[in-house]
Design brief:
single chain, about 80 residues, two-stranded antiparallel sheet, 2 helices, flat
């Protein structure tokens, strides 16, 4: 079924649609429990990016991706 199809992949790591939804839901739950008002993401482009993006959306908080290549003073 489509839910078991690969939704995202980076190198050897893949998440199905069901796994992506579950991971994003857990991310959202952590954000809500922490009282977060935004999620800042500073990392490489791997499967954690869509998990964080969809998790922030589920939690109703802004997702703010930062370029990890920027110097500290630029960040």
């Amino acid at each position: 079924s489509a839910i078991n199809g690969v939704a995202v992949g980076a190198g050897p790591t893949e998440l199905t649609f069901e796994e992506l939804h579950g991971a994003a839901r857990r991310c959202a739950e952590r954000l809500v429990a922490a009282g977060a008002d935004a999620l800042v993401y500073c990392g490489t482009n791997d499967v954690t990016f869509p998990v964080a993006l969809f998790g922030a959306s589920m939690a109703g908080v802004p997702f703010i991706p930062l370029n990890y290549r920027l110097a500290e003073e630029q960040l």
